[in-house]
Design brief:
12% of the residues lie in helices and 41% in strands. By secondary structure, it is mainly β. Helix 2 runs parallel beside helix 5.
């Protein structure tokens, strides 16, 4: 073997790089040394060896190396279930001394020691036995070994307590939970004891779902105490029937245990008079008593599982509900599950469950081995019922893209002491490239280490595995490899023990997977050289290996024998021993490394402790090469229809195929060139149902055969087949009733079968029989030829006899089974006056809120003809009393659209016919119809094609091959084919009107057969027909659509442009230009332009002359579509356009110098200033602008600035004197331009109206103010102009001003004064500003509280004014100071006013004075008060006051009197 590792080993995660390690090599070399050393001391006795072993144990003590766990003599499976007992092999002291028996090295050393102790006879010299032992001695020594093992175990436990690392181990279930069967509402408790270090974490599961006690408080209770863990389920119900799992996990690993809980319902006490229940053994996971009491059971399997698809690694459940009648308490049927007719037993791959009414099979981890036909069998004492369906398992996604699928069905056969043949089946999927071969891996039971058995891939699906250790059990798996990479490993094989087949037969099922089997030693006797092996044959030969088989010799002595295999090239006599170092124990041997194509002969020798025997007879020459040929390609492949998702594929088997494993089938959608496997597990029959296909697609199929040598070439591809349901005979009709009855005949009606068999029903056959005294007679055929209608008159009946009828439907597949017999009808003539029931009710055009109901008129009309129908409706689940009428007035037609349905509600309908005598019997109700718009529902669409053809179009998305489009008018078959033509292509159909006219008005409907009711209708009304005819005419005689008609516009310099724009025109479009019916073309006068991208067509003229007056026309043509547009330029229209053109030309010349861009105009500012302004252009520094008014230049203070191009002149406080003609003149050396503004007469009025509008808009809202005269209404404006015209209104009528009601202006305030207001003055007041247009109004409401408040304030102010006006007051006449000479007389007089006449009081120094001779006080005429001092003396000096007083107030006047003496005064002067 070369040093490089193949890519499929190097890069695959399952490759064991420790395989062929240095340790293994070292162990093998050590074994060879030990073997040689032992052979030289072969004279030592067995007893001496054992004594030395015991001595070394006692002296050496216990090895400090880690030991294996406590030995157990219980055989357990992977679920820790006890399945048997095991007696261990006592190998001597080597196992205990090394302490490495769980490693590969220990196994190699152990094997070497074992062979050494058995004397491998390498020297070929026999040794003498010095001692013989009896069987009793052997038994005594066995007991000593057991005692020694116990001592060793105790020492191991002691050291474990000293070494914490040794103490750590995976969780173990000391006590596993036990399954329970309990009654409903009882409590159940599952408990277990778990050991492990570190302390494991325990989780409980129900059907692999974690149990959370908090999710259902009080339902579950979890407890853990001292390694005892429990789950308590309170008040069990049926939902608690399940498989419960407890999982324990720590850092060393995980372990699980399972228990089932079955909850039963108790239906009553036992009747003591009945016999006791019999215990019956059931093939389910529990046993229960069955109360049968001699009844016959009827078993029905409902809610069945169908064809299922899964993927490797997934979990899949199959289940059926089972109904058993009668239902007896505690009765449990036998539930059995089969796959491909093989009974399935519960295992780690399958879990079965029976809940009392439902059987479930759970495939916990899908593999391709699980693919097959699964059958549920429910067995009772009355028989059994079965249901079957296929399960398909697809390959899991590969770890490497393009890797092949995993092999399957790995099986071990011909197992011997050190040899086993592993077989498997090739996968159906090779990943896109051929499979290079397979690798076989082995794993010793109880370990997780996988070792690769072959270094190079083998193509043969069978491989001999050698080098096994006798007494140990192994499992195997296989991996496929191609150029892309390695597949997933297959499912592991069942465990197989490496032991002699005779020992396996003798020991029976003694748990071979435990890795240990019983080995006994016979009584030692004197050795005998064995004889020749016999019957040596080559049982298998491939290019990779050759397998030999032989029988042991008859004279082999009492001890076991081994074998040497020898080979030689055919034609030579040079024999070469193949297994020189290690003889084989099994009578089987596989030879590798043989030269392909060469011929070899083989022979075998036996050997034991006595020596090597003679060789066997050599085999015949065997050429190295594959003896088993790959099978030939299968023959013709024939697919046939099955269902709408499956096809039955049959083929001719491979000819002369040896050891055929089965066939793989592949399918491909026609045209896709992609092939998919139909099955992933070979099938041995030559017929297979391929499921999971797409309805309506066409598929082709091919097949290839498989045996151990490989997979054959593909068969020829089958013919394409469309996936659709196969045609079958229809189901029986139902709902037979009588439509009319006369003396010797009856008219029957019935309903169409629910299943028509995938093809149209071609007719019906009616049978009848007489019923005499309740006993029916024989059936007789009523019609020999089938009838197409669902109504038929049965003639030649006997009057007053009773009859029963049955009906059979027929299609192209044949005649179906007959319907159930009808009710018993009496043949007697009907004499009732009202009509019979309508029949053949149909429902079409079902939508979420409406549907159309169709029916046929009754056969029996009654005394008069039918003149109408009534339709009844009710919800499907409603009682009979809930029927209600749809129409109040009789419907004359045999169809009706029923509206206002509730979405999602199911309804039933019936129809009653009416004639003059009354309303007859109701028809049979329809089947329930759900008001729902199904997905994909389409409506009839009306279209008009390019040729003007009007058609009705309907599309259906769920057609099948038999579907047909049926068109009708007014829901009756069209009898005038010349009026309409029907065309159907694919899933679309159209009805074409040949010559549409008013005769075509009506309701057109289309119904698609063999669908779920696909139908629609369209009502062609008179208005719709007119619109369609108009569109049709437009399509027949197409015109080029225009965005704009022909128009004219003026361009710069007065150029004239004629133009129009078409919406769309192709590159082939043409235009002709016409003037006054004469063609014009491109030239000096006319310039044409046609832009086909935008559709704009133009014609230019420099100017218009008198000769250009007339009609201009543009004529367009694009294919057969045409159009034209004309423009008439004559009379005033032409003159105005010509004038405008001339003006534009002059304007262009004007704008060559300084000119007005915008002519002189005016604007009124918010401040009511009038601003004259114009916009100028093309100015320069030399340009000047002059303002004139009435021909006089107006000096403008501001300097002209033409940078902004705007000239302004402001007039503040405009008045009539500002009226006049204003003019602005622009001029420079290039020319001049003038702009005039006439502000006289109407122009001035317009200006003032604009001023008035600004004033009006600046006005405030009317406000109310009270005065002493009355109430005043007023509004402020920003500016008041005397020209402003204002009108006051009261109650929408202009106010006539009087002395009491006046208006006026004060500054910017406009007011209305109402003196002495009364109730008549209440109401709405408005002031209207006139601006020459609509004017502006400001309003206020003087009424209610506003009037009351204003009037009260007026009264207050008025009273205050009166008081102020009439109060007492001193008008004047008194000085402030009076200086008078002593002795003189003083007379002062003042005016007094007041109403009433005030009281007058004089005061001196604030003391009231009284009139006397000295002081004369007078008050005359109520107006004049006088104060006289007759002779003034110095005592009269002081402060004097006059006090006047009336009811409105008081006022005083003060003066001072100073009296002087003349001398004193003179002295003072001096």
């Amino acid at each position: 073997m070369s040093g490089s590792i193949p890519f499929y080993q190097k890069h695959h995660r399952h490759y064991d790089r420790g395989y062929r390690s240095r340790q293994a090599e070292s162990a093998i070399s050590q074994y060879q040394q030990n073997a040689s050393s032992y052979s030289s001391h072969s004279s030592k006795s067995t007893k001496g060896i054992r004594a030395a072993t015991y001595m070394s144990l006692e002296e050496g003590g216990i090895s400090p190396l880690p030991k294996r766990a406590k030995p157990t003599y219980l055989a357990m499976d992977k679920e820790n279930q006890i399945i048997g007992y095991v007696v261990p092999i006592f190998r001597g002291s080597h196992e205990f001394q090394s302490g490495l028996s769980d490693t590969e090295e220990a196994r190699a050393k152990e094997s070497a020691g074992y062979l050494a102790r058995r004397d491998l006879f390498s020297s070929g010299v026999e040794s003498e036995r010095t001692e013989y032992k009896s069987r009793r001695t052997v038994m005594r020594e066995s007991a000593e070994r057991i005692s020694l093992s116990k001592r060793i175990h105790e020492n191991e436990e002691y050291h474990k307590r000293l070494n914490e690392d040794s103490l750590m181990h995976t969780p173990e279930f000391v006590t596993a939970p036990r399954s329970h069967t309990v009654w409903e509402n009882q409590c159940v408790r599952l408990h277990c004891t778990i050991s492990g270090w570190p302390e494991p974490r325990v989780v409980w599961y129900k059907n692999n779902v974690t149990i959370d006690p908090m999710s259902k408080p009080g339902k579950y209770k979890l407890e853990s105490s001292y390694n005892v863990h429990s789950l308590e389920i309170n008040r069990c119900d049926f939902d608690d029937t399940a498989q419960y799992r407890v999982s324990a996990m720590n850092s060393k690993g995980e372990n699980s245990a399972f228990a089932s809980v079955v909850v039963k319902r108790f239906k009553g006490e036992f009747d003591n008079a009945l016999p006791s229940p019999r215990l019956q053994s059931r093939k389910v996971s529990f046993k229960a008593p069955c109360l049968e009491y001699g009844v016959t059971f009827e078993t029905h399997i409902v809610e069945k599982f169908g064809v299922s698809f899964g993927r490797e690694g997934e979990t899949l459940s199959l289940g059926c509900s089972v109904i058993i009648y009668p239902s007896l308490q505690r009765f449990q049927p036998e539930i059995e599950w089969y796959r491909d007719d093989k009974l399935l037993a519960p295992s780690k791959w399958f879990q079965t469950h029976w809940s009392g009414d439902r059987a479930t099979l759970t495939l916990t981890h899908l593999n391709k081995e699980d693919e097959g036909l699964y059958t549920l069998r429910v067995i009772t004492k009355s028989g059994f019922e079965t249901h079957s369906a296929y399960v398909f398992v697809r390959d899991a996604d590969g770890e490497v893209a393009g890797a092949p699928g995993a092999p399957l069905d790995v099986y071990c056969q011909d197992a011997n002491k050190d040899y086993v043949i592993v077989t498997w089946k090739q996968p159906a999927v090779d990943g896109g490239s051929s499979i290079l071969g397979y690798f076989v891996d082995r794993c010793e039971v109880g370990t997780t280490h996988w070792a690769q058995c072959n270094d190079t891939p083998v193509k043969f699906a069978r491989f001999p595995v050698t080098g096994l250790v006798e007494g140990r059990s192994y499992v195997f798996r296989v991996r496929a490899v191609n150029k892309a990479g390695m597949s997933h490993p297959s499912r592991v094989s069942e465990p197989v023990a490496a032991m002699d087949p005779a020992d396996r037969t003798r020991k029976g099922a003694s748990a071979p997977w435990t890795g240990q089997i019983i080995v006994t030693e016979e009584e030692p006797v004197e050795g005998v050289v064995p004889g020749r092996p016999c019957d040596l044959t080559v049982i298998e030969a491939t290019k990779n290996y050759v397998v030999l088989s032989w029988k042991p010799p008859g004279d082999k002595g009492h001890e076991g024998v081994m074998y040497y295999v020898e080979k030689c090239v055919s034609g030579t006599d040079s024999w070469q021993r193949v297994n020189t170092e290690i003889p084989v124990k099994s009578p089987r041997f596989a030879l590798f490394d043989l030269a392909e194509g060469k011929s070899y002969c083989f022979r075998v020798r036996c050997c034991n402790s006595a020596g090597v025997g003679e060789p066997s007879d050599p085999t015949e020459a065997t050429t190295v090469g594959d003896k088993l040929d790959i099978p030939s390609a299968p023959g013709r492949v024939v697919p046939t229809r099955n269902t709408d998702t499956s096809v039955v594929v049959s083929w001719e088997g491979s000819r002369e195929a040896k050891e055929l494993v089965g066939y793989y089938i592949e399918n491909s959608i026609v045209g896709s060139n992609t092939w998919e496997p139909c099955n992933n597990k070979p099938v041995k029959s030559t017929r297979f149902i391929c499921h999971g296909l797409t309805t309506g697609e066409s598929y082709i199929f091919r097949v290839r055969a498989v045996n151990a040598a490989g997979i054959s070439e593909f068969s020829q591809e089958s013919e394409a087949i469309e996936v659709k349901a196969a045609i079958a005979s229809p189901a029986p009709p139902y709902g037979i009733n009588v439509l009319e009855c006369v003396r010797d005949s009856m008219v029957l009606a019935w309903k169409q079968p629910t299943f028509i068999g995938g093809a149209d029903i071609t007719g019906y056959f009616v049978d009848y029989r007489e019923v005499v005294d309740g006993v029916p007679g024989k059936w007789h055929e009523a019609n020999i030829r089938s009838v197409s209608e669902r109504a038929y008159r049965v003639s030649e009946l006997k009057e007053n006899m009773l009859y029963q009828f049955q009906v059979r439907a027929a299609n192209m597949a044949g005649v179906g089974i007959p319907s159930l017999p009808s009710e018993v009808f009496k043949c007697e003539e009907w004499t009732i006056a009202v009509p019979g029931p309508p029949h053949d009710l149909k429902v079409q055009e079902v939508r979420k809120d409406s549907l159309v109901l169709l029916w046929k008129p009754p056969v029996y009309q009654g005394r008069d003809c039918v003149n109408g129908y009534y339709i009844d409706i009710k919800e499907a689940e409603a009682d009979f009393e809930m029927w209600r009428g749809v129409n109040e007035k009789a419907n004359e037609k045999t169809f009706m659209k029923i509206k206002d349905l509730k979405e999602g509600v199911s309804y039933v309908f019936r129809v009653r016919a009416q004639n003059k005598a009354g309303v007859g019997k109701a028809s049979e109700p329809t089947e329930p119809v759900e008001a729902v718009t199904k997905p994909g529902t389409a409506e009839i669409v009306v279209t008009v094609d390019d040729d003007g053809v009007i058609s009705l179009n309907f599309e259906c998305s769920n057609l099948n091959a038999e579907s047909k489009f049926v068109w009708s008018k007014n829901y009756e078959e069209m009898t005038e084919p010349e009026r309409m033509t029907m065309e159907t292509k694919g899933n679309k159909s159209k009805a074409i009107f040949n010559t549409p006219s008013e005769d075509d008005l009506g309701i057109y409907s289309c119904f698609v057969t063999h669908t779920d009711g696909a139908s629609a209708s369209y009502t062609l009304s008179e208005e719709a027909l007119k619109e369609l005819l108009k569109v049709s005419h437009d399509h027949k005689f197409p015109i080029i659509p225009l965005k704009t008609d022909l128009a004219v516009e003026l361009l710069e310099k007065g150029r004239v442009r004629f133009w129009l724009q078409a919406e769309k025109i192709s590159a082939n479009g043409k235009v002709e230009y016409v003037f006054n019916d004469n063609m014009i073309s491109q030239g000096e006068k006319y310039k044409m332009n046609f832009d086909k991208n935008t559709g704009i067509i133009e014609m230019f003229m420099e100017s218009l002359g008198k000769e250009d007056e007339g009609t201009f026309t543009f004529q367009l043509q694009d294919g057969k579509a045409t159009n034209q547009s004309s423009l008439v330029l004559i009379g005033d229209v032409f003159k105005q356009l010509q004038k405008e053109s001339e003006f534009q030309r002059k304007e262009w010349h004007r704008k060559q110098g300084p000119h007005f861009v915008e002519y002189l105009g005016y604007e009124v500012t918010p401040e009511c200033c009038v601003r004259l302004k114009c916009k100028v252009g093309n100015m320069k520094k030399d340009s000047v602008a002059l303002w004139y008014k009435d021909g006089r230049e107006v000096k403008v203070n501001e300097k002209l600035d033409f940078s902004e191009g705007v000239l302004t002149l402001e007039i503040t406080q405009i008045s009539r004197k500002d009226a006049g003609i204003y003019e602005v003149v622009l001029k420079d050396d290039r020319g001049k331009d003038t702009s005039t503004l006439n502000l006289t007469d109407q122009g001035f009025k317009d200006l003032m109206n604009q001023v008035f509008s600004v004033i009006a808009n600046s006005s405030t809202q009317l406000k109310i103010q009270s005065t002493e005269e009355g109430i005043r209404l007023y509004s402020f404006v920003n500016y008041y102009n005397d020209e402003l015209h204002v009108t006051w209104h009261h109650k929408d009528a202009a106010i006539a001003f009087t002395e009491r009601i006046k208006s006026g202006v004060v500054g910017e305030q406009l007011w209305l004064q109402i003196s002495e207001p009364t109730d008549k003055d209440k109401g709405k007041y408005a002031i209207e500003f006139f601006d020459g247009k609509g004017g502006l109004r400001r309003t206020v409401e003087l009424a209610g509280q506003a009037f009351d408040d204003a009037y009260a304030e007026f009264q207050r102010l008025k009273a205050a004014a009166i008081a102020e006006r009439n109060r007492a007051r001193v008008a004047g006449g008194l000085p402030d100071v009076v200086t008078i000479q002593e002795g003189k007389a003083l007379n002062l007089t003042c005016n007094i006013s007041g109403d009433p006449v005030p009281e007058v009081t004089w005061l001196k120094n604030e003391r009231e004075m009284v009139s006397d001779d000295h002081y004369i006080l007078k008050f005359e005429s109520g107006k004049f008060a006088s104060f006289t001092i007759s002779g003034v003396n110095t005592a009269d000096s002081g402060k004097y006051s006059i006090l006047v007083k009336n009811k409105y107030g008081t006022e005083s006047g003060d003066f001072t009197v100073s009296v002087f003496i003349p001398d004193e005064e003179h002295g003072k002067k001096k």
